[in-house]
């Protein structure tokens, strides 16, 4: 059994919350750069150029890429041979978010009561934490701040087996079409199919963590992803929705087995600031 | 499509010169307000009370900036999605508001109200938040400090880069742009 003080988790989360909001992953930058070469719309190219320049300014000035530094979403895998000591895991994670968001002057975007009072919690907690117990003696933390604009364009639909793959494709394309310029395109589209109602939504979010350019491990779904990307880019929505050939940088599908009566499908939309990074302790 | 240097407050002459698709460099005073502040502003108007700033000729920027660091005028400050303010915007336009800045399309009600009341909607590039911050030369919270990032701020901007989406003739840059680059399957 490996003993691990949760203070290490706090440190890691603090570090990740700052780093992830300033530096965009290389795969996302690369995808944006190559979309600039393909974009036909002059306005679309100008917007992509502004987005790319913004990455440089953010890095140079140590400013967040986007003012919406997101809800703090964390995927934590705890090795079952790890014994966490020194306090509660969730408290340690929230403390890391609190310290990171305060010290780096990141925006605090959480309200305590979602409907009635909507009072800001002032430290961006609580984090949204998904914990899995896995084999091994390490702890892996993935930090993925999620902005509100793109999250708002996401949807879960309980489809039927009869809807089939064509039904799934039409739903995904329609969801992106109805989103237009709202989610800050060019977007990344995460699709979760299977599991159950809430698991499909989580699958869609997990799918967003896959690096852009890495093929789907299932060759059939890889083909579906390519077709969906083509159809979505043919919508003409373009950068910021002002028209163009770059509406999405990638479509990522993740699946799980499901009940014989069900076919849950979730679409989670990610803005062009597709921020996520990980640390293993 | 042309490039226009624009200075607030906006008057009818300036507004009527703007066309959907124009690139604008906006300078002068603007005010920030988003969801929670709009709810309060609308309530004040309904109650016949004074607003924290003069709406006549005013431009509202839909933004909740990241908090400024010591010595920094403005931290990252890109636009938020505009449709969430659609329910309040016609009322503000009726009371003198001339321009709004955000991202994403507006409802038909807002577009009609802009035609009727002589208003324009500008798009800023969403997510280009660090770059936009450099165009902000002054910033101060003037109302609703309790709302944190959603407080109303008076900003002085210098050549803030924007695109005219909706002009007073009813044109819409989203519709025109998408129609031009859409390909039928």
Describe the structure.
The complex is a heterodimer of chains A (281) and B (185). Chain A is an alpha/beta fold. Chain A has two domains: 2-20 and 65-145, no CATH class; 148-274. Helix content of chain A is 40%, strand content 23%. Chain A has a four-stranded mixed beta sheet, with helices on one face. Chain A has a four-stranded mixed beta sheet with strand order 6-9-7-8. Chain A is globular. The two termini of chain A are 15 Å apart. Chain B has helices spanning 12-17, 35-46, 89-94, 108-117, 129-133, 173-181, and strands spanning 3-7, 23-32, 59-61, 99-102, 120-123, 136-143, 152-166. Chain B is globular, with a radius of gyration of 16 Å. In chain B, strands 2-3-4-5-7 form a five-stranded mixed beta barrel. In chain B, a hairpin with an 8-residue loop joins strand 6 and strand 7. By secondary structure, chain B is an alpha/beta fold. At the A-B interface, helix 3 of A face helix 5, strand 7 and helix 6 of B.
Give the fraction of residues assigned to helices of chain A.
Answer: 25-40%
Percent strand of chain A equals: 15-25%
**SS-derived structural category of chain B:** alpha/beta
Residue ranges of chain B: pLDDT <50 for 5 or more in a row?
Answer: none
CATH fold label of chain B:
fumarase
Query: Which H/E pattern describes the elements of chain A?
Result: EHHHEEHEEHEHEHHEEE
Largest sheet of chain B: 5 strands, mixed, barrel
Distance between the termini of chain B: 30 Å
The CATH architecture assignment of chain B turns out to be Alpha-Beta Barrel
Q: Biggest sheet of chain A: strands side by side, in what order?
A: 4-2-5-10
Main sheet strand line-up of chain B: 2-3-4-5-7
